[in-house]
Amino acid sequence: VTARQRLRADVARYLVLFDRPVSRYRRMRTVMGTEAIWAIAVFRFGQYVYFDANRLTRLFLKPLYEWSAKMVGLAVGIHLFPDTTIGPGFYIGHHGGIWISPLATLGANCNISPGVVIGVAGQGRDKGPVLGDRVWVGPGAVITGEVKVGSGAVIAANTLVTANIPENAVAIGVPARIISYSGSGKLIRVAAPPAA
Ligand SMILES: CC(C)(COP(=O)(O)OP(=O)(O)OC[C@H]1O[C@@H](n2cnc3c(N)ncnc32)[C@H](O)[C@@H]1OP(=O)(O)O)[C@@H](O)C(=O)NCCC(=O)NCCS
Asked: Of the candidates 125, 168, 128, 164, which has an alpha carbon nearest to the alpha carbon of residue 148?
């Protein structure tokens, strides 16, 4: 799957919120007017530059990408890096205070909220968290270290995850405890993850 195809799936996550077919004008307004989409677009652009483009194109586009990523990070507070594997259908609810490490891995159709940090546990660790598909991460949550968060899991607002979370679990608190195994179906408005 190319960066461009992933970006299409990302934007589609915002368009399903309209619950009806979306005109080209409405799509344009959504893309231009949603800060999180700017950050996701720059992130996918970075993945295109680093992984999909040929050497010559990469040489020319790298400075443009680096500048755009810096500007979008400063302007909307969403810090994403091309090395991070993030599946298609990535959705960021609102912008601000978001940091996702280059060493993290996120599956398809994950939801991220403001103030979320997903990163390594400290210096000397070389692996980051691995999130499955359709994981919903609430505002202010921190997921750190070499942990696995199963598909369909919900990480509640302000939760600290330092251990594995099973599939479809709802994790709450500092440190996280599991309060349910009922999944995130209500929180993520997409029928099923597309084939990656
Ligand atoms: C994950 C979440 C949706 C779970 O909701 P839920 O399954 O309906 O859980 P409940 O509200 O029934 O809460 C179950 C228990 O956990 C507690 N709890 C819920 N969320 C909590 C949280 N984030 N931190 C600590 N405790 C929490 C409740 O007080 C309740 O405790 P009790 O059993 O002692 O009464 C919810 O906790 C959450 O984090 N919502 C955040 C929504 C949000 O931030 N939206 C804006 C996005 S930008």
From this structure: 164
* 156 alpha carbon – ligand 1 mean position (Å): 6
How confident is the model over 83-105, as a mean pLDDT? 95
Q: How far is the CA of 79 from the centre of ligand 1 (A)?
A: 26
Residue 112 and residue 153: Cα distance in Å, rounded? 12
For ligand 1, whether the C-beta of 94 sits within 6 Å is: yes
The packing angle between helices 55-76 and 35-47, to 10°, is 160
Segment 147-166, tens digit of pLDDT: 999 999 999 999 999 999 99
Q: Which of 110, 111, 135, 179 to mutate to test the pocket of ligand 1 (most atoms within 8 A of CB)?
A: 179
Ligand 1 atom nearest to 158, measured from its CA: 23
Q: According to the model, what pLDDT value does residue 190 have?
A: 67
Tell me how far the alpha carbon of residue 102 lies from the centroid of ligand 1, in angstroms: 29
Task: Work out the mean pLDDT of the chain and round it to a whole number.
Answer: 92
Q: DSSP label at 37? A: H
CA of 161 to the centre of ligand 1 (A): 15
User: pTM (2 decimals)?
Assistant: 0.91
Confidence of residue 48 (pLDDT cuts 50, 70, 90): very high
The CA distances from residue 1 to 35, 176, 194, in Å, are: 24, 34, 11
Instruction: Enter the DSSP assignment of 93.
Output: S
